Task: structure prediction
Amino acid sequence: MTDLIASLDSVHFSYDRGNEVLTNVTLQLERGSIYVLRGKNGAGKSTLVGLLTGRLAPTSGTVTLAGGSAPSLRRSRSACVFQQLSLFQDLTVTENLLLAAVDGSPWRAWTKASARAMARRHCGKIGIDLPLDAVCGSLSFPARQKLEIARALMRRPSVLFLDEPTSALDSAARTELFGVLRRVNANGTTVVLVTHNAEDVAALRGRAIDLDGGRVVERKEGLPSRSGQSEVLEGADLKQAPAGPSESDGGSAMSAPRGTVPSMEIEIASLTLNNTVLVKLYPRHPSVMIFDDAVHRSQAVAALHEARSDYSVRLRDEPGGEWRYIRSGADEGIRVMSTDKEQHSLFAAMSVQENASLLALRRSCTAMRSPAEEGRLVDRIEARAGISWPGRHAPVGTLSGGNQQRLILASLLEARPRLLVAEEPLMGLDEPSHDTIAGLLLDHTASSRNLLIATCFPDHYHCLGARAGAVMHHPRCGPKARPDC
Amino acid sequence: MLALIVACTLAIPSFGDASNVKNLLGQAAPLLLLAIGQTFVLLIRAIDLTQGVMVGVSSVVLFVLFKDIGPVGAVGVVLLGSSALGAVSGALVAKARLDPLIGTLAGMYILTGILMFRTGGSPLTETPAISGDFLIWLGTSSVGFVPVSFIVACSLAVMAHIYLRHFVFGLHIYAMGSNPTAAIAQGINRILVFAVAYGICGLFTGGAAILLTARIHQGNPHLGEGLLFESIGSAVMGGVLLSGGIGGVWAAVRGVAIFALIQNALYLTDLNSHVRDVVLGVMIIVGVVIKAERPGDSA
Result:
């Protein structure tokens, strides 16, 4: 008899007052396998993970995990890494790991040295490199994501669920993670990974479960590998992208447009890396700020909307103009779309309409809210970004990750920011969402507004006619080409 | 709540009497204002521990000013002063990035010290006749069996609800409590939001102090003792979360209604006052647990 870790029988699920997210799902997961859960944004992947972990209860049907009907997470010895991280921000990395280690045995005694040794041993065993004495809140989002995975593995789970864990990781971190997951699986842990990224699917060589319209189709061994993401970006749907300067112009795809005066210049100085870059922004041309690693990308983006002790940011409105330091990007008309949307952009407990209103409408705080105006705004965003949602008054936390991303971007663009800073805006998206987001970004630059993309993968943004505005190196890395810096 | 009213009416014969209903509404009016004020602060993920002592300060100031500038001026000064004091303390907490609990705890000690130093801890009872008339009218008059003080409190509750739900600033308050990082990233001014939320809390606290002073016809520095925890308890029991972003004026109204009903019913029984406290504490826990299991209706 096959050893199952999860079994779903005729399961239906819908959120409060919403449409059915999962319809008649029957599924069996075998122990010791790697499963890759795929589907478009809003297909119900995260909801399915919620059911498989016992976090959500089905509207109808039966969920059986590791032999019992709807058992608790602890009883089924499963661990989850969700898009929304559950770390203790004010504790150190070692303390976060320690809490996972002593889960269930609060009387166990530790010294600082033994806790640190335990954390070092654990990180070494699973092959994740983390600054053990750093406070969690001071880490970048990718680093926190790695810590979350390390915490989950601390419990030696029999099943490990990962909900889009690679969406904010650079290629090196992603390769590192897959190595960890393969090692974990080789030791008998079942791995269930939710992802959009074709490269992730191929790298893990798992069994695919495709979700389509809330229904599950399980495939047999071997996943058909999609073409690389850069090929997708250059596909037919994106041919409307403004053409970059040709080689005959003397420029390259990553150079500044000739004869054009920058409409804004930003200088970002990393005080810890002792590194300063100048970003030149040109009207109608998206600029790309290239990073060697995701950690510094997230930190630099964070510095553009909030004051940080380790970065200083200043800008000037025209070349030769006067520099001024900025403490809050919002005060300068700068809006930021970070990969860490739960922390930086979304108000999870508030409704879709309230989120859109906060992100998009620039009103005096003494003004009265207009339900009609907010309704029209939501209609515009819905039409422009092609979002499907259970209702405009539903909490935004019930939207899928892709729809949340569309909502954030469409709302931010409604505010007509002077500069939109987008951190890896095309990463971790399925094709329809990718095309929608790319289209929204192109619309933004077409209206002579500035767009700065922070990325570790500049090739992904050729489709936008993007050019390098700056390259920020980590001192340990070798220099890259630095066009127009 | 309906079940609670029916149970109290059946169990305690005098509970439904017009005089008791009038008394219940009169008792609930100041607590309603305090709970609404505290709700504004709780919504931004903060707390105001100065509420109790502010009631004492406002009561004494009101009584003193009656003699010099009359009732209208005194009421105006108390409301303006309490809201200004609240706004300043909110701005300080936000600007200095103090933990609201510690910041307002310090404020509570400072105000208590000043108040006791100036009054010696003794109540003031002598007022000019005209001011006394005003206080008697506010504290004892009623329309039918509904006290004027309750009508005033309900009117202010409606205004607070409109402000919170239908003005942009109300949205900013919810945003600051729901996700402070995202709120700041969207350009919402943290200091302004704190100043206004604490200012509104101060305004409602001043209002509550006026109603209480009118009810007992006395400027009493000890008037607010115990009220701080009643206001926080009522708001939380109604569905306002201490973690911010969830709840609203109706949640505070619901919490105060339950709290006042239980308190009033217990007073009508022959229970020892200490036993009453125990029962009240248990009822608060039951109320909060029931509310936590039904989080959806916390507007």
Q: What stands out?
A: Residues 51-95 of chain B form the longest helix (45 residues). Chain B touches chain A through 25 residues (CB under 8 Å). Chain B has one domain: 16-225.
